[in-house]
Design a protein that fits this description.
Blueprint lengths: L36 H19 L4 H26 L5 H28 L2 H11 L9 H19 L3 H5 L8 H9 L11 H4 L9
Helix pairs in contact: 1-2, 1-3, 1-5, 2-3, 3-4, 4-5, 5-7
Length: about 210
């Protein structure tokens, strides 16, 4: 039986089928990412990074092995997808792509770490825009805000879990839809008028 070549998008990525908020169409309340290998990898990178941040809080002698096990599971899954769904039967081709994935992971990790170190939502949003949204200049800002807020919320939730809960695999990431609902609500402050005092220009010290 002749292998069927998966359809491709304009960038040459294989298009597949997927489910869940990240891949559901925006008309159905989802994020609307294309169901490609790259989308799968980038969404996983983001969640792997959040887990890695929490794993760094483990006793020092255990951190490296936990991080390596997490990374190994990702690459096992990635290679399986390459062979099963993308027709990469040659090990040499898969190895080349795995090296590319490793470089992508390191880039994602560094960009997200920078945002965490600077405690900056803006830097985090910039990193998510480059990685998850592939630096798309036409990205919906509301979508970018949702993923950024979701990431910060999940980091906090992971930080509140005990080491035992993490090591026993009791990690369940939250539902991004709830973030969308919160961000879509207009603050009552938007309906309030500025007072005369609020409209005054601030006085600068040292003015004559």
């Amino acid at each position: 039986m002749e292998d069927r070549v998966p359809p491709m998008n304009a960038a040459g990525d294989h298009l597949g089928e997927g489910s869940g908020w990240w891949l559901e169409s925006k008309s159905k309340g989802g994020l609307g990412l294309e169901a490609t290998f790259n989308s799968w990898a980038q969404v996983l990178y983001l969640h792997m990074w959040m887990l890695t941040v929490r794993l760094r809080c483990f006793p020092k002698e255990y951190v490296r092995s936990w991080e390596q096990n997490l990374l190994d599971h990702f690459f096992y899954a990635a290679e399986d997808r390459m062979a099963t769904w993308h027709g990469m039967s040659a090990r040499g081709v898969r190895n080349k792509n795995l090296k590319d994935l490793w470089l992508q992971w390191r880039g994602c990790q560094l960009s997200y770490d920078e945002a965490l170190a600077k405690e900056s939502d803006i830097v985090m949003a910039s990193a998510i825009w480059r990685n998850v949204f592939k630096a798309n200049e036409n990205v919906d800002v509301a979508d970018l805000a949702t993923v950024t807020a979701y990431t910060m919320r999940e980091l906090q939730r992971l930080g509140n879990m005990t080491d035992a809960e993490i090591s026993e695999g009791k990690v369940n990431f939250g539902e991004p839809r709830s973030i969308t609902e919160i961000l879509s609500k207009q603050s009552p402050a938007f309906r309030q008028h500025f007072t005369a005092d609020e409209l005054k220009a601030p006085e600068l010290s040292g003015q004559p």
